[in-house]
Amino acid sequence: ASDVYKRQVSGSCADGSIKVKKSTTGVTLVLDGLTLTSENTAVTCGKSSEVTILVSNGTENSLSDTEQNNDDNYPENENAENAVIKCKDGSLVTLCGDGELTITANGKNGIKSGATTDEDGEASLTIRDLTLNIDAPVNDAINAEQLLNVESGTLTIDAADDAIHCDLVLNIGADGTDGPTIDITNCCEGLEGAELNVCSGDITINASDDCLNAANSDLTDYDFTMTISGGTIDACSSAGDGFDSNGDLTITGDTVIVWTANTADNEPLDADGTITVSGGTVLAAGG
Q1: Which of 8, 222, 242, 282 could form a disulfide with 30 if both were Cys (CB 3.0 to 4.6 A apart)?
Q2: Could you give the C-alpha distances from 63 to 41, 84, 135, 136, 263, in angstroms and in order?
Q3: Contact 42/18 with Cβ under 8 angstroms?
Q4: How crowded is the C-beta side of 32, counted as CA atoms within 13 Å?
């Protein structure tokens, strides 16, 4: 389908959901003062879809699921999608706008973005402009399999596991912009991607494990990289590394402050490859 669809949703619903069907493109879903709870996934973007989720200026919106939206803990639930917002394989989804969106993930993940496949096409998730609050007491706040761009906006995250995770490429900010403001109040790992790039932003992380991690245990012979070229990062780990790259770690600019626990085998800057600091201001202490 190539038609353009625009739907504005508002009001309150105690058990409902919104679904964009497979291969539907040109969809804009406008959240305009919506409070939506679903037993399972609140918003689903089907395979090969192209969807913009626009949060209206000046509005407060909330999406939540229930603990049954987890097929690990509830295998009998055939409708469990493991996320409040589920973007399936091959979907191109942009979450944006000048309003506020609060996501409460009682099942598993807050937002889940799928993979690029030969059958379904390229997948990506892009976040910009909006105020996004995610409470994920079970697993990850944001989890992507292919490409995750957090370009701008204000994000506040409390997660049981990773705050912002991508199996492959995670980009925070963009060259020439102020980038996002990210406050990760609690998590296991803060930012994780096989290729982790921080170009801009104001980022605060309180983690129990690694604050930044360039890794993916499912990939072999992969060129893991962590590159910090801009932004201000204030990161603290209570029981892990500060920045941990399974390949090279490169810092070329702006400001990095990293504190780690004063325990063996935990380093403020740790890399299996080469650590290069060629610019910026770096304070790394602990370990």
Answers
A1: 8
A2: 9, 7, 11, 12, 40
A3: yes
A4: 8
Task: Tell me the two tokens of residue 104.
Answer: 């409460």
**Which residues contact residue 81 at a Cβ distance below 8 angstroms, ignoring those fewer than 6 apart?**
40, 41, 44, 69, 112
Residues 123-132 pLDDT 10s: 999 999 999 9
> Distance of alpha carbon 59 from its chain centroid, rounded?
22
Cα distances (angstroms) measured from residue 171 to each of 11, 39, 196, 214, 255: 34, 32, 6, 12, 17
Q: What is the value of pTM for the model shown?
A: 0.97
CA 265, CA 241: separation in Å to the nearest integer?
8
Backbone Cα Rg of the chain: 19
Q: Cα–Cα distance between 193 and 222 in angstroms, integer?
A: 12
The pair of structure tokens assigned to 21 is 């069907």
pLDDT tens per residue across span 65-115: 999 999 999 999 999 999 999 999 999 999 999 999 999 999 999 999 999
Q: What is the Cα–Cα distance from 283 to 252, expressed in whole angstroms?
A: 14
Sign, Cα dihedral of 134, 167, 66, 127: positive
287: pLDDT strictly greater than 70: no
Angle, vertex CA 211, rays to CA 182 and CA 240, nearest 5? 155
Mean pLDDT of 226-241: 96
What is the 3 state secondary structure string of 138-158?
CCCCEEECCEEEECCCEEEEE
CA distance 226 to 18: 36
| Residues comprising the chain, all counted | 287
What is residue 8's three-state secondary structure?
A: strand
pLDDT tens digits for range 254-268: 999 999 987 777 899
| Helices and strands counted in the chain (H then E) | 0, 28
Look up tokens 């492959």; give the residue. 168
Alpha carbon 208 to its chain centroid, in Å, reads: 18
